[in-house]
Task: structure prediction
Amino acid sequence: MTEMTSLTSLEGRTALVTGAGQGVGAGIVKVLADQGATVIVNDLFPERAETVAAEIGGQALPFDVTDLDAVRAGFAAAGAVDILVNNAGIPTAGFPQVDFKDSDPELWARFVDLNLYGVMNCTHVALQGMCERGWGRVITIASEAGRVGLPIRVSLYGAAKAGAIGLMKHVAHEVGPLGVTCNALALGSMENVPGPARYPIPRKGTGTDVGAMCAFLASDGADWITGQVYGVNGGAIT
Ligand SMILES: NC(=O)c1ccc[n+]([C@@H]2O[C@H](COP(=O)([O-])OP(=O)(O)OC[C@H]3O[C@@H](n4cnc5c(N)ncnc54)[C@H](O)[C@@H]3O)[C@@H](O)[C@H]2O)c1
Result:
């Protein structure tokens, strides 16, 4: 572990969070900024990114994570990114819940493009600079649907999230020796979705809950933690 005054401070680090123009991502960027990081707020929609960036004193950087050329251009404009949070994950074209056997194959790409290719695109580009500089953090926001089977008709989403979790586990082995860690978070239901929260901690999750875990995993204190998937879920699945 590196010598430093605070194990959890993010002073001097630059974090890019995808899909941070609302919801969970907006909570994550606030926590990271509060811990001292310079924060870059990505979103598909420029106005969402700009609103959140203005609120937290960050920089808005809109681009589509599913478009590799746009991701390359975005990272080139961002400069050195020390911390990448792959948060974009709910398809803006809609999130139909349907049994897989009845699903229209035209729906499949919607989930895989965003939740797997989006994560691959951003991680691939971010790793170049992180590995060169010998320090980096990649945190992928997944879902409990990506690590357990659930009776809620989200097979396509679960499959894509499981892919992203698998990517983090394997890439962790490749980049660990170069000073870069890769982890995933499996979220339970967050406050922006309807329905009851029958969790040991009986409420829905917030962006702050997720941001706190991201801040720790992004810190020097988490230097020896990689290739893991952590539940941030009110104790729903243990
Ligand atoms: N909300 C939940 O209950 C829940 C549960 C488990 C996991 N998650 C995960 O948490 C993450 C955030 O979810 P949320 O509920 O805040 O979603 P959200 O839809 O409220 O916000 C996601 C943001 O991502 C942006 N976005 C969508 N496609 C994009 C793209 N191609 N490029 C860049 N930005 C894009 C959207 O414009 C939006 O502002 C996702 O990965 C989601 O799968 C959420």
